[in-house]
Amino acid sequence: MTAPDRIRIAEPADLPDWAKSASNLADPRLGASPVSASDEFFAPVTRMLDPAPAEFHPGRYDDHGKWMDGWETRRRRGPGHDHCIVRLAGRGTIRGFDIDTSHFTGNYAPAVSIEATCTEREEPGDDATWTEVLPLTALAGNRHHLLECLAGGEWTHLRVHIFPDGGIARLRVYGVFCSAIREAAADALVDLAALTNGARPVAWNDSHFGSVENLLLPGRGVDMGDGWETRRRREPGHDWCIVALAAPGEIERIEIDTAHFKGNFPDRCSVQAACIADGGTPASLVAQSMFWPVLLPESPLSADAEHAFASTVARIGPVTHVRLNIIPDGGVSRLRVWGRVAR
Protein backbone atom coordinates (compact mmCIF):
# COMPACT_ATOMS: atom_id res chain seq x y z
CA MET A 1 0.00 0.00 0.00
CA THR A 2 1.51 3.31 -1.06
CA ALA A 3 1.56 6.27 1.27
CA PRO A 4 -1.33 8.19 -0.42
CA ASP A 5 -3.60 5.12 -0.12
CA ARG A 6 -3.18 4.60 3.60
CA ILE A 7 -6.32 4.59 5.71
CA ARG A 8 -6.57 7.71 7.83
CA ILE A 9 -8.21 7.68 11.27
CA ALA A 10 -9.73 10.80 12.81
CA GLU A 11 -7.91 12.46 15.67
CA PRO A 12 -9.76 12.39 19.02
CA ALA A 13 -11.51 15.51 20.23
CA ASP A 14 -9.96 17.66 22.95
CA LEU A 15 -12.93 17.36 25.29
CA PRO A 16 -14.00 20.21 27.58
CA ASP A 17 -14.77 19.54 31.24
CA TRP A 18 -18.52 19.22 30.62
CA ALA A 19 -17.90 16.25 28.33
CA LYS A 20 -15.09 14.46 30.16
CA SER A 21 -17.28 13.04 32.92
CA ALA A 22 -20.35 12.50 30.74
CA SER A 23 -21.58 9.51 28.75
CA ASN A 24 -22.33 9.35 25.03
CA LEU A 25 -26.12 8.95 25.04
CA ALA A 26 -26.00 8.20 21.29
CA ASP A 27 -23.77 5.13 21.66
CA PRO A 28 -25.30 2.11 19.87
CA ARG A 29 -23.49 -0.21 22.31
CA LEU A 30 -25.84 1.17 24.96
CA GLY A 31 -28.94 0.92 22.78
CA ALA A 32 -29.02 4.11 20.70
CA SER A 33 -30.24 3.73 17.12
CA PRO A 34 -31.37 5.75 14.10
CA VAL A 35 -35.14 5.99 13.66
CA SER A 36 -35.53 7.72 10.30
CA ALA A 37 -33.76 9.97 7.82
CA SER A 38 -34.82 12.19 4.95
CA ASP A 39 -31.97 10.82 2.85
CA GLU A 40 -29.07 8.35 3.22
CA PHE A 41 -27.95 8.12 -0.40
CA PHE A 42 -24.18 8.16 0.13
CA ALA A 43 -23.90 6.88 3.71
CA PRO A 44 -26.41 5.75 6.39
CA VAL A 45 -27.09 7.37 9.75
CA THR A 46 -25.83 4.21 11.52
CA ARG A 47 -22.26 5.13 10.59
CA MET A 48 -22.65 8.54 12.25
CA LEU A 49 -23.31 6.78 15.57
CA ASP A 50 -20.37 4.37 15.35
CA PRO A 51 -18.36 4.63 18.61
CA ALA A 52 -15.07 4.10 16.74
CA PRO A 53 -13.20 7.09 15.26
CA ALA A 54 -14.13 7.94 11.68
CA GLU A 55 -11.91 6.45 8.99
CA PHE A 56 -11.05 7.60 5.48
CA HIS A 57 -10.29 5.00 2.79
CA PRO A 58 -8.86 6.92 -0.21
CA GLY A 59 -9.59 4.31 -2.89
CA ARG A 60 -12.85 2.89 -1.58
CA TYR A 61 -16.03 3.34 -3.63
CA ASP A 62 -19.42 1.66 -3.72
CA ASP A 63 -22.39 1.73 -6.10
CA HIS A 64 -23.35 5.23 -4.95
CA GLY A 65 -19.90 6.79 -5.22
CA LYS A 66 -17.16 7.57 -2.70
CA TRP A 67 -17.50 5.52 0.50
CA MET A 68 -17.66 7.84 3.50
CA ASP A 69 -17.57 6.92 7.17
CA GLY A 70 -20.53 8.91 8.47
CA TRP A 71 -23.99 10.05 7.42
CA GLU A 72 -24.07 11.69 3.98
CA THR A 73 -27.04 12.77 1.87
CA ARG A 74 -27.21 13.42 -1.87
CA ARG A 75 -26.79 16.91 -3.31
CA ARG A 76 -30.10 18.70 -2.82
CA ARG A 77 -31.43 20.40 -5.98
CA GLY A 78 -34.56 21.95 -4.50
CA PRO A 79 -35.75 23.84 -1.42
CA GLY A 80 -35.60 22.38 2.08
CA HIS A 81 -32.95 20.54 4.03
CA ASP A 82 -32.13 17.05 5.30
CA HIS A 83 -32.70 15.66 8.77
CA CYS A 84 -32.63 12.44 10.77
CA ILE A 85 -34.13 11.23 14.05
CA VAL A 86 -32.00 9.33 16.56
CA ARG A 87 -33.30 7.40 19.55
CA LEU A 88 -30.93 7.84 22.49
CA ALA A 89 -29.81 4.84 24.53
CA GLY A 90 -32.05 5.96 27.37
CA ARG A 91 -33.71 8.97 28.93
CA GLY A 92 -31.06 11.47 29.93
CA THR A 93 -29.98 15.05 30.41
CA ILE A 94 -27.69 16.51 27.75
CA ARG A 95 -24.64 18.66 28.42
CA GLY A 96 -23.46 19.11 24.84
CA PHE A 97 -22.49 17.63 21.51
CA ASP A 98 -19.52 16.76 19.35
CA ILE A 99 -20.50 17.31 15.73
CA ASP A 100 -17.53 15.71 13.99
CA THR A 101 -16.93 16.34 10.27
CA SER A 102 -13.62 14.43 10.13
CA HIS A 103 -12.65 13.55 6.53
CA PHE A 104 -15.60 15.50 5.13
CA THR A 105 -13.97 18.38 3.23
CA GLY A 106 -15.92 19.36 0.10
CA ASN A 107 -19.01 17.47 1.20
CA TYR A 108 -19.65 18.39 4.84
CA ALA A 109 -22.92 19.91 6.02
CA PRO A 110 -22.47 23.71 6.20
CA ALA A 111 -24.75 24.08 9.23
CA VAL A 112 -26.61 22.04 11.84
CA SER A 113 -29.31 22.42 14.46
CA ILE A 114 -30.74 19.86 16.89
CA GLU A 115 -34.14 19.44 18.53
CA ALA A 116 -35.06 17.00 21.29
CA THR A 117 -38.18 15.36 22.67
CA CYS A 118 -39.08 12.89 25.42
CA THR A 119 -41.44 10.02 24.68
CA GLU A 120 -41.97 6.40 25.64
CA ARG A 121 -42.53 5.50 21.98
CA GLU A 122 -39.85 3.95 19.80
CA GLU A 123 -40.54 6.65 17.22
CA PRO A 124 -41.95 10.09 18.10
CA GLY A 125 -45.43 10.66 16.69
CA ASP A 126 -46.71 13.64 14.73
CA ASP A 127 -47.93 15.09 18.01
CA ALA A 128 -44.44 15.10 19.61
CA THR A 129 -43.26 18.38 21.11
CA TRP A 130 -39.75 19.24 19.92
CA THR A 131 -37.48 21.66 21.79
CA GLU A 132 -34.41 23.28 20.25
CA VAL A 133 -31.34 22.16 22.20
CA LEU A 134 -28.71 23.37 19.70
CA PRO A 135 -29.44 26.48 17.62
CA LEU A 136 -28.46 26.78 13.98
CA THR A 137 -24.66 26.56 14.00
CA ALA A 138 -22.16 26.86 11.17
CA LEU A 139 -19.85 23.90 10.60
CA ALA A 140 -16.39 23.60 9.07
CA GLY A 141 -14.91 20.63 7.27
CA ASN A 142 -12.71 17.95 8.82
CA ARG A 143 -12.93 19.01 12.46
CA HIS A 144 -14.68 18.43 15.79
CA HIS A 145 -17.32 20.96 16.87
CA LEU A 146 -17.82 20.80 20.65
CA LEU A 147 -21.06 22.64 21.38
CA GLU A 148 -22.92 23.00 24.67
CA CYS A 149 -26.60 22.14 24.96
CA LEU A 150 -28.99 25.08 24.91
CA ALA A 151 -31.85 23.65 27.02
CA GLY A 152 -32.25 21.62 30.18
CA GLY A 153 -34.66 18.75 30.55
CA GLU A 154 -34.78 15.00 30.02
CA TRP A 155 -34.75 13.66 26.49
CA THR A 156 -35.13 10.37 24.63
CA HIS A 157 -34.90 11.37 20.93
CA LEU A 158 -33.04 13.91 18.83
CA ARG A 159 -33.92 15.41 15.46
CA VAL A 160 -30.72 16.48 13.70
CA HIS A 161 -31.13 19.03 10.90
CA ILE A 162 -28.36 19.65 8.35
CA PHE A 163 -28.58 22.66 6.05
CA PRO A 164 -29.06 22.05 3.22
CA ASP A 165 -27.39 18.65 2.75
CA GLY A 166 -24.00 16.93 3.04
CA GLY A 167 -22.28 14.80 5.63
CA ILE A 168 -21.42 14.43 9.31
CA ALA A 169 -18.84 11.83 10.30
CA ARG A 170 -19.82 11.31 13.94
CA LEU A 171 -22.39 12.54 16.43
CA ARG A 172 -21.58 12.32 20.13
CA VAL A 173 -24.24 13.37 22.64
CA TYR A 174 -22.60 14.00 26.01
CA GLY A 175 -24.92 13.70 28.98
CA VAL A 176 -26.01 11.63 31.95
CA PHE A 177 -28.60 8.86 31.96
CA CYS A 178 -31.55 9.44 34.27
CA SER A 179 -31.54 6.69 36.84
CA ALA A 180 -34.67 4.59 37.08
CA ILE A 181 -33.31 2.34 39.81
CA ARG A 182 -34.22 4.64 42.68
CA GLU A 183 -37.69 3.11 42.38
CA ALA A 184 -36.28 -0.44 42.42
CA ALA A 185 -37.78 -2.85 44.93
CA ALA A 186 -36.17 -2.64 48.34
CA ASP A 187 -34.78 -6.17 48.08
CA ALA A 188 -33.56 -5.83 44.46
CA LEU A 189 -29.84 -6.23 43.81
CA VAL A 190 -28.90 -3.84 41.00
CA ASP A 191 -25.69 -2.84 39.24
CA LEU A 192 -25.10 0.63 40.61
CA ALA A 193 -22.09 1.10 38.30
CA ALA A 194 -23.94 0.61 35.00
CA LEU A 195 -23.91 3.56 32.62
CA THR A 196 -27.47 2.86 31.57
CA ASN A 197 -28.59 3.05 35.21
CA GLY A 198 -27.04 6.51 35.56
CA ALA A 199 -23.50 5.81 36.79
CA ARG A 200 -20.60 7.78 35.31
CA PRO A 201 -16.83 8.07 35.60
CA VAL A 202 -15.74 11.31 37.24
CA ALA A 203 -11.93 11.14 37.57
CA TRP A 204 -8.96 8.91 36.72
CA ASN A 205 -5.20 9.20 36.61
CA ASP A 206 -4.61 7.57 33.21
CA SER A 207 -6.55 6.15 30.27
CA HIS A 208 -3.83 5.94 27.64
CA PHE A 209 -5.10 2.84 25.82
CA GLY A 210 -8.80 2.73 26.71
CA SER A 211 -11.56 4.91 28.14
CA VAL A 212 -12.72 4.55 31.75
CA GLU A 213 -16.31 4.72 30.47
CA ASN A 214 -15.81 1.30 28.85
CA LEU A 215 -15.75 -0.22 32.35
CA LEU A 216 -19.43 0.66 32.77
CA LEU A 217 -20.74 -0.62 29.42
CA PRO A 218 -23.18 -3.54 29.29
CA GLY A 219 -22.07 -7.07 28.39
CA ARG A 220 -18.53 -8.40 28.21
CA GLY A 221 -15.86 -6.54 26.27
CA VAL A 222 -15.58 -7.48 22.60
CA ASP A 223 -11.79 -7.02 22.49
CA MET A 224 -8.91 -5.43 24.38
CA GLY A 225 -9.85 -1.98 23.08
CA ASP A 226 -13.26 -2.28 24.71
CA GLY A 227 -12.00 -1.72 28.26
CA TRP A 228 -10.00 0.65 30.44
CA GLU A 229 -6.23 0.28 30.02
CA THR A 230 -3.45 2.45 31.38
CA ARG A 231 0.09 2.85 30.09
CA ARG A 232 2.97 0.83 31.52
CA ARG A 233 3.85 2.37 34.87
CA ARG A 234 7.56 3.18 35.26
CA GLU A 235 7.34 4.89 38.63
CA PRO A 236 6.06 3.99 42.12
CA GLY A 237 2.36 3.94 42.83
CA HIS A 238 -0.67 2.51 41.05
CA ASP A 239 -3.48 3.56 38.72
CA TRP A 240 -7.07 4.34 39.71
CA CYS A 241 -10.44 5.68 38.61
CA ILE A 242 -13.46 7.09 40.47
CA VAL A 243 -17.05 6.26 39.51
CA ALA A 244 -20.19 8.07 40.68
CA LEU A 245 -22.82 5.39 41.26
CA ALA A 246 -26.31 5.57 39.81
CA ALA A 247 -27.84 5.93 43.28
CA PRO A 248 -26.68 5.65 46.89
CA GLY A 249 -26.56 2.00 47.83
CA GLU A 250 -25.23 -0.65 50.18
CA ILE A 251 -22.79 -2.79 48.22
CA GLU A 252 -22.88 -6.57 48.48
CA ARG A 253 -20.94 -7.85 45.48
CA ILE A 254 -18.23 -6.54 43.16
CA GLU A 255 -17.31 -8.06 39.80
CA ILE A 256 -14.14 -7.25 37.88
CA ASP A 257 -13.70 -8.70 34.41
CA THR A 258 -10.29 -8.78 32.69
CA ALA A 259 -11.67 -10.19 29.42
CA HIS A 260 -9.04 -10.11 26.62
CA PHE A 261 -6.36 -8.70 28.94
CA LYS A 262 -3.76 -11.48 29.07
CA GLY A 263 -0.23 -10.06 29.20
CA ASN A 264 -1.36 -6.74 30.57
CA PHE A 265 -3.97 -7.38 33.29
CA PRO A 266 -3.41 -5.75 36.72
CA ASP A 267 -1.67 -7.93 39.27
CA ARG A 268 -4.11 -6.87 42.02
CA CYS A 269 -7.00 -4.56 42.68
CA SER A 270 -8.80 -2.90 45.58
CA VAL A 271 -11.91 -0.74 45.90
CA GLN A 272 -12.57 2.19 48.23
CA ALA A 273 -15.93 3.92 48.64
CA ALA A 274 -17.66 6.83 50.36
CA CYS A 275 -20.96 8.62 50.65
CA ILE A 276 -20.53 12.15 49.30
CA ALA A 277 -23.63 14.16 50.18
CA ASP A 278 -23.01 17.10 47.83
CA GLY A 279 -21.56 15.09 44.94
CA GLY A 280 -18.25 16.94 45.12
CA THR A 281 -16.10 18.18 42.24
CA PRO A 282 -13.64 15.92 40.39
CA ALA A 283 -10.72 17.69 42.06
CA SER A 284 -12.18 17.40 45.55
CA LEU A 285 -13.10 13.75 45.02
CA VAL A 286 -9.56 12.88 43.95
CA ALA A 287 -8.12 14.44 47.10
CA GLN A 288 -10.67 12.80 49.40
CA SER A 289 -10.62 9.38 47.77
CA MET A 290 -7.13 8.52 48.99
CA PHE A 291 -8.61 8.29 52.49
CA TRP A 292 -11.94 6.63 51.74
CA PRO A 293 -12.81 3.41 53.63
CA VAL A 294 -11.84 0.14 51.99
CA LEU A 295 -14.80 -1.62 50.38
CA LEU A 296 -12.77 -4.45 48.84
CA PRO A 297 -9.29 -5.19 50.20
CA GLU A 298 -6.36 -5.78 47.87
CA SER A 299 -7.22 -8.91 45.86
CA PRO A 300 -5.34 -10.84 43.16
CA LEU A 301 -6.52 -10.78 39.54
CA SER A 302 -5.87 -13.18 36.68
CA ALA A 303 -5.79 -12.95 32.91
CA ASP A 304 -8.90 -12.90 30.74
CA ALA A 305 -11.27 -13.88 33.56
CA GLU A 306 -14.33 -12.78 35.51
CA HIS A 307 -13.69 -12.20 39.22
CA ALA A 308 -16.57 -12.03 41.72
CA PHE A 309 -16.10 -10.80 45.29
CA ALA A 310 -18.81 -11.04 47.94
CA SER A 311 -17.53 -12.42 51.25
CA THR A 312 -14.62 -9.94 51.30
CA VAL A 313 -16.78 -6.89 50.54
CA ALA A 314 -16.95 -4.74 53.68
CA ARG A 315 -20.31 -3.55 54.97
CA ILE A 316 -19.65 0.17 55.31
CA GLY A 317 -23.18 1.47 54.77
CA PRO A 318 -24.58 3.46 51.84
CA VAL A 319 -22.06 4.85 49.36
CA THR A 320 -22.35 7.15 46.35
CA HIS A 321 -18.85 6.82 44.83
CA VAL A 322 -16.29 4.06 44.40
CA ARG A 323 -12.59 4.22 43.60
CA LEU A 324 -11.15 1.24 41.72
CA ASN A 325 -7.40 0.84 42.27
CA ILE A 326 -5.46 -1.37 39.86
CA ILE A 327 -2.02 -2.38 41.07
CA PRO A 328 0.28 -1.37 39.56
CA ASP A 329 -1.28 -0.77 36.10
CA GLY A 330 -2.88 -2.60 33.19
CA GLY A 331 -6.33 -3.20 31.77
CA VAL A 332 -9.79 -4.08 33.06
CA SER A 333 -12.74 -4.74 30.79
CA ARG A 334 -15.76 -4.29 33.08
CA LEU A 335 -16.65 -3.23 36.63
CA ARG A 336 -19.92 -4.25 38.25
CA VAL A 337 -20.95 -2.90 41.67
CA TRP A 338 -24.02 -4.78 42.88
CA GLY A 339 -25.99 -3.31 45.76
CA ARG A 340 -29.39 -2.39 47.13
CA VAL A 341 -30.59 1.19 46.71
CA ALA A 342 -30.46 3.08 50.00
CA ARG A 343 -33.70 4.75 50.97
UniProtKB/TrEMBL annotation:
List the catalytic activities from the record: allantoate + H2O = (S)-ureidoglycolate + urea
GO MF annotation list:
allantoicase activity
GO BP, one annotated term? purine nucleobase metabolic process
Q: Which domain of life is it from?
A: Bacteria
Enzyme Commission number(s) = 3.5.3.4
Q: Which UniProt keywords apply?
A: Hydrolase, Purine metabolism
Query: Which part of the chain is the Allantoicase domain?
Result: 31-176, 198-341
Family annotation (Gene3D superfamilies): Galactose-binding domain-like
User: What InterPro entries would the database entry show?
Assistant: Allantoicase (IPR005164), Allantoicase_dom (IPR015908), Galactose-bd-like_sf (IPR008979)
The metabolic or biological pathway listed in the UniProt record of this protein is:
Nitrogen metabolism; (S)-allantoin degradation; (S)-ureidoglycolate from allantoate (aminidohydrolase route): step 1/1
Q: Can you name this protein?
A: Probable allantoicase
